[in-house]
Amino acid sequence: MAAMNDMQDHPILGQVILGYSPMIDRQRQVVATRLTVFPERPDAQPDMAALLVALAEVWPDEGAGLSLTLRALDGAAPKATAPAAPLAGPPVSLNIAGEGLLQSLLAASPGPQWMIEVPAFMAADPAHAAALRALHDSGHTLLIKGRPVAELPRELLPCFSHSIIDVNEERRTSAPPPFGVRAITTVQAGVRSQVAMEAAFQRGALAALGWPLDDPVLPGKGRVTVPPDLQVIMALINGVDRELPASQLEALLKRDATLAFRLMRYLNSPAFGLQVEINSFGHALMMLGHHRLKRWLALLLVSASKDAHMKPVMFAALRRGLLMEELVRNSGDAEMRGEMFICGVFSLLDLMLRQPFDELLKTLPVPDRVQQALGSGGGPFMPYLELVRAIENESLFDVRECADRLFMDLAEVNRALLVTLRAARQLDS
Fold this sequence. Notes:
Blueprint: E1 16-24, E2 30-39, H1 48-56, H2 68-71, E3 92-96, H3 99-107, E4 114-119, H4 120-123, H5 129-137, E5 141-145, E6 160-166, E7 185-189, H6 194-202, E8 207-209, H7 228-241, H8 246-253, H9 257-267, H10 281-302, H11 311-327, H12 334-346, H13 349-353, H14 357-360, H15 368-376, H16 382-392, H17 396-405, H18 410-428
Helix pairs in contact: 7-8, 7-10, 9-10, 10-12, 11-12, 11-18, 12-15, 16-17
C-alpha cells in the first residue's frame, strides 16, 4: 500500500470533518459514494476551492457522462436503453453541511465529477435559482435533498435529476407512477438494514443511501454451512497462520481455480504496489511472507460471497480494513498495520457468514488484539473501529470525540479517509 500513501499535504483537511456512505442500486451495486463535509467549527468558512483540489486527487475529472450511471437506472428512461458502462470508480455526491459552505462550493466552479446535493429550502429560494440553473446547464447532476415546504419554480424542476428523501420523511406507500409519467426519481436516505433497503425499492426508490449493516446476527439452532469457496479461503488462512509450506498451501488453493485467479488479480493490482508480477501462490509467499499474505486472504474472504445482498457489506468491509490500516500508518509498526487491516475487514464477517463472532472466532484464527475488538468489543483496536463507524455514520460529534480519544488531529483522519477511498477505487477497477 505504500504506493497509495503519496497524497499531497492539504491544510484544508484540518478545517473540515468528512464522512461517507454508499449509494446502492436495485442490484445491490454501489453506484456512487456520498461524501459529507462539515466545517470543523460552526462559524468557520473553509476554502471550498482548496477542498475540491484535495478531493480531485481521489476522484479526478474523468470526462463527460459521469451522471449517466444513475440516469440509466431511472424508471422514466426508455426500457430499451441499456445501462451506461460504469467509469473506473463510482461518481461522488457531495453533501455539504451548512448553507454558507454550500454557497462557497457553488461559487468555486466545481468540476463535472461531482454530483451536488441541494437542500430543499435552498432550492426553493429564488436567490439561488440562477446559480443552480448555471450548474445544470454546464452538465452537473443536482439532487434535491428533503421535501420542499413550497412548490419549486417550474423552470427549476428540470435541474434536479433525483430527490433524496430520508426514510423518516417517506410518505409513499407504493411504487411511483407507471412508465411514461414524468416524476422525479427518489434516492432513499437513512437506510440501515437489508429490510429497510428492500422496502425502499418496493416503494420505487431508484437507489438507497446508507449502510445496511444493522441487521441482527442471531445464533442459529444448527451450524451454518459455509460455502465451499469460503471454506477454501478459511483453510488457507489457517494454513498461513500455521506457516505451512508453500506446496501445501498451493494444494489447498487448487481446489478453486476462480479463487486462485482472484487472489493473483489482487496481488498484481496497482494498489498493492509490487514491482514484479506475482504468478503463483508460492511466488506470493516468497515475496510477501506469511503475515502480509494473510491480510490479502482476509480481503479475499470478505469479497468471495455470491449473495448479491452482501455486495454493500463487502464494499464496507474492504474500506474498513484499508482505513484502519491507514489510521496507524505513521504510528504503528508493520505488524500492527496488518492486524488493523484484518480487524476492519473481519468486523463485518458475522453479517456475511450469518454467524455471531463468538462462533466464528472458534474456527477462524485472528491475532489477540483483533479477537478482543471483535469478540468482546474491547482492547487497543476498538477505539479505531469506533472512529471508522463514526465516519461511516457521518456523525460530526462522534468523529471529533473518537479522534480526540486517539489524540489524532482532523487533518490526519481526513487524509487517511481520502487515501483509503482512492486505494479502494483502484482495487475495485
